[in-house]
Amino acid sequence: METYRIPLDAIGMASTTPEPGEPPGAGAEGGDRLPVIEVLAEIASSMSAEADTEQMLMRFLEIMVRISRAKAGAVRVLTADGAHLRMVGSIGLSPALVEKERYVPLECGICGKATLTQSSQSESVMEVCQKQVRHIYFAQHCSTVYAVPLRYKGKVMGVYNIFLDNPEPLPRDIRTLFNSISEHLGMALENTRLTRENMRISLMNERTMLANQIHDSLAQTLAYAKMRLSVLNEAFADGDQDRANRYLGDVEEAVDMAYSELRNLITQFRDRIDPRGLVPALQEMAESFSKKANADVDFLNVAQDVVLTPEEEIQVFHIIQEALYNICKHSRARHVVVTLDLHEKQYVVNVADDGVGLVSHATTDMGKSFGLTIMRERAAKLGGRLTIESRPAGGTIVRLSFPARQGIEEKS
What we know:
about 400 residues; Beta-Lactamase; seven-stranded mixed sheet
């Protein structure tokens, strides 16, 4: 991954010269420093809007270098193995030093001390830096290094390094501000880690679901075709033309079914939920299935508000999607209505059609259908229940009901 390196003159280092009429030292102490409240507001804004965590870390490194009058600075994050610190970027450091310090052991020098104690540290470059890089720091006129750990809930996720050209300690207000920055950015790093972790879990769950669906639909159909080919060969060997023709018809039917199932699987997993949320996604799905099924598909949202987590939206979306696929494949319906309601703190989804309805053998086959099994598994993840009923006027109703999250009010 590319390491950011920004020269000092690119960030507009503030002058230490006081403005006319100010007492000596006023410029150095805060006349042109960013007010603390502005820095904290910038952190809050970045945590809610910043897409790239490393860019956010670099932006605050610029601020820390500026307000501390530092000669240079660097920001490092903990690697996946938890044993090293990787340099995300730097300001004012030479390319040679950046290359040497790209990865350092977690326990190395002042960074290791700050990580172990979970508190800011400052030492002379002579005392804390490795021998092979000391001369590079001195060539850049760095004499003191500060290490500010990025921490959250007792865990260190990285370290800021600030390099100064004098041994004077940083003012207390700046140290306090740096500690506040480190805590907020530590939270941002932890949130990023959790987001990546949740994305991995969701991806693995969907892949497992896809693998199961392929195994129990397409794979079973192909296994049936393979068995029929075996008995077809026996029929040919026995010279039984009638039996051979029958088995050949079975194989052709199985291949046609496998092809149809494969197309359905490809179509299903190409369909993605609308990023605007579940309701727009269902509206779009209804329009799409109206064309595919040669039937009128209407979607009615009668809930006052639909407040679901992204994971819940995905489960509901795929349940309705599978119900519509089954209608398209089996029911010969001319009209389908999908409704979403909120009643007695339960979301209720109905997919009703006017097709051929359920008959005894169809009910048995449907009970064994893997598509239905997947739908019920998704309903269970919602803490809900899935049922299939016959309509008095003909056709079927697929009904999903699951509890609304606490705090959701149904419409009066």
